[in-house]
């Protein structure tokens, strides 16, 4: 089974039902529910998603959504090794470096994001949700 790292923006697309992005993110998570892929996110993703969603939704709804979401994914730790790797690299966005190295350290087969340009020189495929779905039909 393919192990796919999901960037925070894809999770926000799903949980916020973002126009133009929700459907593809929903399809991706349906693959996981159907046991076609294993989805991986980082502990940092939960912190970032909580921070952003609490500006849009009531706190109780945010926590409820994240609890349900957690049942669909494997949560990978953001540890000292990841921090060191991300600090050494030249990612414009530090958070992208953290996410990338968590994906690498957890042997993910691909990373799904809407910010593909932020992951230049990746050693694993970087896809948006629609591309991933189209490649895996």
List the keywords.
7 helices; alpha/beta; 5 strands; 137 residues; globular; Rossmann fold; 15% strand; 52% helix
Helix content: 40-55%
What is the beta-strand fraction? 5-15%
User: Strand count, sense and closure of the main sheet?
Assistant: 5 strands, parallel
User: Cα distance, first to last residue?
Assistant: 14 Å
CATH class: Alpha Beta
Strand order of the largest sheet: 3-2-1-4-5
User: What is the overall pLDDT average?
Assistant: 92
Identify low-pLDDT runs.
none
Q: Can you count the helices?
A: 7
CATH architecture annotation = 3-Layer(aba) Sandwich
In short:
It is built from seven helices and five strands; from the N terminus they run E-H-H-E-H-H-E-H-H-E-E-H.
What can you see in these coordinates?
The chain has a single domain, classed as 5'-nuclease (Rossmann fold). With 137 residues, the protein is an alpha/beta fold. The protein is globular, with a radius of gyration of 14 Å. Helix 1 crosses helix 2 and helix 1 packs across helix 3. The longest helix has 12 residues. It has seven helices and five strands, in the order E-H-H-E-H-H-E-H-H-E-E-H.
Topology:
Elements: E1 2-6, H1 8-15, H2 22-33, E2 37-42, H3 43-53, H4 59-70, E3 73-76, H5 80-88, H6 94-105, E4 110-112, E5 126-127, H7 129-135
Parallel strand pairs: 1-2, 1-4, 2-3, 4-5
Helix pairs in contact: 1-2, 1-3, 2-7, 3-4, 5-6
């Amino acid at each position: 089974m393919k192990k796919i790292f999901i960037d925070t923006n894809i999770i926000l697309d799903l949980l916020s039902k973002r126009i133009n992005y929700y459907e593809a993110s929903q399809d991706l998570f349906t693959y996981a529910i159907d046991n076609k892929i294993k989805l991986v996110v980082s502990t940092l993703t939960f912190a970032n998603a909580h921070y952003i969603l609490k500006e849009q939704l009531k706190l109780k709804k945010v926590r409820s959504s994240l609890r349900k979401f957690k049942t669909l994914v494997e949560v990978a730790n953001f540890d000292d090794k990841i921090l060191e790797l991300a600090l050494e690299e030249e990612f414009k966005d530090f958070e992208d470096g953290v996410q990338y190295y968590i994906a690498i350290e957890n042997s993910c087969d691909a990373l799904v994001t809407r910010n593909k340009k932020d992951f230049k020189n990746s050693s694993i495929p970087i896809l948006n949700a629609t591309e991933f779905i189209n490649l895996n039909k």
